[in-house]
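Title: Prediction job returns without error message
Component: structure pipeline
Severity: low
Priority: P3
Assignee: unassigned

Description:
Job completed but the reporter wants confirmation the result is attached to the right record. Sequence as submitted:
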Amino acid sequence: MTTSEMVFEYLKSQGLMPKIDEDNDIIFKYQMLTFIYFNNDDDEQFFRLALPGIFDVTEENRVTVLEAINETNKRMKVAKAYIPRDDVWVAAEIMMDSTPVLDDMVPRLLGILTGARREFYDQIG
């Protein structure tokens, strides 16, 4: 079973109703927020979970946003905030061993990402 399949089954078992998008990534909601698990079947030990679109970036607020991202990244473990387009995302990227325990890992990463979102909001003011 691939890591993506394991993640899908785990999320389903937790009642999170995952869906697979056109890129083979897994989309699901947790605490009314939308998360994406990125399919990495070419690297089974790489695990990337993201909370997209937490804040819109404009020309007027870009410097303030970058400063808030920098401070958030400095303060948070594992999570990193970044701007992939015109919005801020936070992601957790880790390397797993060959026997990942999703019951331990996924809830903690979801907590880290929601914490990074709160930290970013605190920094942006």
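Comment from assignee: result matches the submitted record. The longest helix spans residues 102-124.
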